[in-house]
Design brief:
- Chain B: Keywords: Cytoplasm, Hydrolase, Nucleus, Protease, Proteasome, Threonine protease, Zymogen.
- Chain B: Its EC number is 3.4.25.1.
- The structure holds two protein chains of two kinds.
- Chain A is of the alpha+beta class.
- Chain A has four helices and twelve strands; from the N terminus they run E-E-E-E-E-E-H-H-E-E-E-E-H-H-E-E.
- Chain A has a single domain (15-218), classed as 4-Layer Sandwich (Glutamine Phosphoribosylpyrophosphate, subunit 1, domain 1), CATH 3.60.20.10.
- In chain A, 29% of the residues lie in helices and 32% in strands.
- The longest helix of chain B has 22 residues, at 32-53.
- Chain B has helices at residues 32-53, 59-72, 115-125, 132-149, 175-182, 189-199; strands spanning 3-5, 8-11, 17-21, 24-27, 81-88, 91-98, 103-105, 156-163, 166-174.
- The chains are: A alpha+beta, B alpha+beta.
- At the A-B interface, helix 2 and strand 9 of A face strand 2, helix 1 and strand 9 of B.
Chain lengths: 223, 200
């Protein structure tokens, strides 16, 4: 007799796509605002971008309930860090914290596909990309979510980041200027929206620079 | 180095050699998060050992700490195939440790989906008294051949050396370029003629 399998799953996938690009003195984090379940749209106006610290912004697609829980944990840990160290967490520190937080639920994971973007201690842009259980690496750009398979090859083609493992080392920072990077992100989402049913409605872009954070919103196809 | 999720290449640049501390390295095969987390955890335990005992931990001890930790999670679905390489008072040490809790001491290992291909090259070229240059070239070629035949291997081949004063990274080469380095393509007649014409 075959084993009875559960017909209820604790997980759901709310779809959506997140992208981040690191520059020499900026970081661009973008995500669409559509939240879906199955073939239905729950809302067209859900932000998947969360500011964790002054220099660290998290964008997550996947199961938004788990994302919300994850975000709460990180926010509270950041608050404790600020009390104990009298300063904000840096982006690389937040990256390690996120990895550990994800791994601590190794046997009942957060169904969240994360991209962490921000500025490092030297003011250079940095992007960290994760899997659901916390493995991470620092990259020059990344896409996660339902449209990631459509977007990543295009970003590889345009941004051609040399591997950080090469010796002699080559910089992973994109040579693009900030307006060019924002333009690239808009292009990439417009294309992903055409072919991915879970991506669309609106595009929210956050641009992090040393002097502050700027937000832009662009309309996407709603079909 | 490849990271695969659902037949999609998640990354070509995952660090598969993890720097536990300045004189010990761990290699990663299996689950990326499992390997990253447990190697970092091992690094913490090694440091605590140093603080408690006022001396560095041996490679044997470090590998046993990891093996015991993984044994306690046996059957729960962790996926870790790793080698711990380091230098201690007894000289160089190399151990293979996996998620079943297995731990083996040896002179050479190959781990991962491409390991059979790497073993072929590694075993045929290995001698215990090889020089560092010979050994690093053998390692590089073994990795290259594994990436050539195994779909789940590729990206950059990194080579590290672990000596009495710690580890250093010797090289990191894109395997696509290594291919043409080992098997250069003789230029076609038409290209040769064009080159000669351009040179005139």
């Amino acid at each position: 007799m075959t084993k009875q399998h559960a017909n209820w799953s604790p997980y759901d996938n709310n779809g959506g796509t997140c992208v981040a690009i690191a520059g020499s003195d900026y970081c661009v984090i973008a995500a669409d605002t559509r939240m879906s379940t199955g073939y239905s749209i729950l809302t067209r106006d859900y932000s998947k971008i969360h500011k964790l610290a002054d220099k660290a912004v998290l964008s997550s697609s996947g199961f938004q309930a788990d994302v919300k829980a994850l975000q709460k944990v990180l926010k509270s840990r950041h608050l404790v860090y600020q009390h104990q160290h009298n300063k904000q967490m840096s982006c690389p520190a937040m990256a390690q914290l996120l990895s550990n937080t994800l791994y601590f639920k190794r046997f009942f994971p957060y169904y969240a596909f994360n991209v962490l973007g921000g500025l490092d201690e030297q003011g250079k842009g940095c992007v960290f990309t994760y899997d659901a259980v916390g493995s991470y690496e620092k990259v020059g750009y990344s896409a996660q979510g339902s449209g990631s398979t459509l977007i990543m090859p295009f970003l590889d083609n345009q941004l051609k980041s040399p591997s950080p493992l090469l010796l002699p080392a080559q910089d992973a920072i994109t040579p693009l200027s900030e307006p060019e990077a924002v333009d690239l992100v808009k292009t990439v989402f417009a294309s992903a929206t055409e072919r991915d049913i879970y991506t669309g409605d609106k595009l929210e872009i956050m641009i992090l620079k040393a002097d502050g954070i700027r937000t832009e919103v662009m309309e996407l196809r709603k079909d | 180095m490849f990271l695969i999720g659902f037949l999609y290449l998640a990354s070509q640049s995952v660090k598969k050699i993890i720097e536990i501390n300045p004189y010990m390295l761990g290699t990663m095969a299996g689950g990326a998060a499992d390997c990253q987390f447990w190697h970092r955890n091992l690094g913490i335990k090694c440091r605590l050992h140093e603080l408690a005992n006022k001396r560095r931990i041996s490679v044997s001890g470090a590998s046993k700490l990891l093996a015991n930790m993984l044994y306690s999670y046996r059957g729960m679905g962790l996926s870790v195939g790793t080698m711990i390489a380091g230098w201690d008072e007894t000289g160089p040490g190399l151990y293979y440790v996996d998620n079943e809790g297995g731990r083996l001491k040896g002179d050479r290992f190959s781990v991962g989906s491409g390991s059979p291909y790497a073993y072929g090259v590694l075993d045929s070229g290995y001698k215990f008294d090889m020089s560092v240059e010979e050994a690093s070239e053998l390692a590089r070629r073994s990795i290259y051949h594994a990436t050539f035949r195994d779909g789940a291997s590729g990206g950059v081949a990194s080579v590290y050396h672990v000596g009495p004063n710690g580890w250093t990274k010797l090289s990191g080469d894109d395997v696509g370029e290594l291919h043409y380095h080992y098997y250069p393509v003789p230029p076609a007649i038409a290209e040769q003629v064009m080159e000669e014409a351009a040179a005139e």
